[in-house]
């Protein structure tokens, strides 16, 4: 009975939250509110020309407010979607923001995926000096890896896949805000140490870029979701497609088109020429670990075995462990 009451309370709270988001949508929008599918920790309601987003539980008001001020200004216009209002509202214990509605990437039509448009938008974002914007927190990419891995079981309760993912995570050099094996580090090709802000124009990063972070508005593609926008290493914004390519899950032709478009647009994360993996290797490995951790957690929640793609990510984590072990052995000889 206790479990049933808990579920009922959760459903009641979700209904109350959706009702409040609907009321906000009616205030700014022009159609009856409809709940949109999204990830489990976020609730999004569309009301015609606007969407109302309830951010994940525990989101900080001040970091989100700083990010909203940044995207509401002229410096990111045409690159990152401008909100309907830069006000951060509340619905119960959730922070809420309001945005123009757009048309997302169609997951059923991979051939039409806007890889080049995404690359050009990221290059434009990375060219905006962070100093031209209101003060921003660190970009959220590196810290997200640790948070995702931390949700996995550890010790005797961990599954074989969970143990592989944790070994891969522990093999990576220490990252800002993550409990790496040797603590925070910095240096060529590595993310910046905790508390540091990279100098120069290449210091602004989206923090969680993938094709789901793009919509078409008035006929043009634009980036969305400022939840992880901040100061950091822009190479992390290329890390997800790099990780998929390295794992064999993204066609080489697509990856090379994406990278070529980014470089042609002046993208600074990997330079105009040379080996991009000098900058992408660690972020791509870290994103592989994050994706694998999320896949294992999802399979556990759904009570199923890993699917083929998820198993590929676990196999990639095993290769990361072998690679990092070989690097460590070479360094100590």
What is the strand and helix layout of this fold?
Layout lengths: L1 H27 L5 E3 L6 E5 L2 E5 L6 H12 L12 E7 L2 E7 L2 E2 L10 H12 L14 H10 L9 H12 L32 E2 L8 E4 L2 E4 L6 E2 L7 H8 L5 H13 L12 H26 L5 H25 L1
Antiparallel strand pairs: 1-2, 2-3, 3-5, 4-5, 6-8, 7-10, 8-9
Helix pairs in contact: 3-7, 4-8, 5-8, 5-9, 6-8, 8-9
Description:
This protein is of the alpha+beta class and 333 residues long. It is built from nine helices and ten strands. A hairpin with a 2-residue loop joins strand 8 and strand 9. The longest helix is centred in the N-terminal third of the chain and has 27 residues. The relative contact order is 0.12. The N terminus is likely disordered. It comes from Planomonospora sphaerica. It holds the Pfam family APH.
Explain briefly what this protein structure is:
With 333 residues, this protein is α+β, with helices and mostly antiparallel strands.
């Amino acid at each position: 009975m206790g479990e049933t009451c808990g579920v009922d309370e959760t459903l009641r709270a979700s209904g109350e939250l959706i009702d409040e988001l609907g009321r906000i949508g009616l205030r700014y929008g022009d159609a009856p509110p409809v709940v949109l599918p999204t990830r489990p920790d976020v609730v999004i309601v569309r009301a015609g020309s606007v969407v109302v987003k309830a951010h994940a539980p525990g989101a900080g008001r001040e970091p989100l407010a700083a990010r909203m001020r940044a995207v509401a200004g002229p410096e990111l216009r045409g690159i990152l979607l401008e909100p309907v209002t830069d006000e951060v509202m509340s619905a119960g214990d959730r922070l809420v923001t309001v945005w123009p509605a757009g048309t997302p990437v169609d997951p059923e039509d991979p051939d039409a995926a806007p890889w080049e448009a995404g690359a050009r938008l990221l290059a434009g974002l990375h060219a905006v000096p962070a100093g031209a914007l209101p003060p921003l927190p660190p970009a959220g990419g590196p810290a997200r890896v640790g948070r995702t891995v931390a949700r996995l079981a550890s010790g005797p309760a961990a599954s074989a896949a969970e143990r592989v993912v944790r070994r891969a995570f522990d093999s990576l050099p220490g990252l800002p805000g993550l409990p790496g094996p040797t603590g925070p580090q910095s240096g060529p090709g590595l993310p910046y140490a905790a508390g540091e802000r990279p100098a120069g124009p290449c210091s602004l990063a989206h923090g969680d870029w993938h094709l789901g972070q793009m919509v078409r508005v008035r006929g043009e593609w634009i980036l969305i979701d400022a939840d992880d926008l901040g100061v950091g290493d822009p190479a992390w914004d290329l890390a997800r497609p790099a990780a998929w390519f390295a794992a064999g899950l993204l066609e080489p032709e697509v990856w090379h088109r994406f990278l070529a478009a980014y470089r042609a647009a002046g993208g600074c994360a990997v330079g105009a020429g040379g080996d991009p993996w000098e900058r992408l290797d660690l972020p791509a490995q870290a994103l592989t670990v994050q994706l694998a951790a999320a896949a294992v957690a999802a399979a556990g929640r759904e009570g199923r075995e890993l699917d083929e793609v998820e198993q590929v990510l676990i196999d990639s984590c095993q290769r990361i462990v072998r690679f990092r072990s070989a690097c460590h052995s070479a360094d100590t000889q």
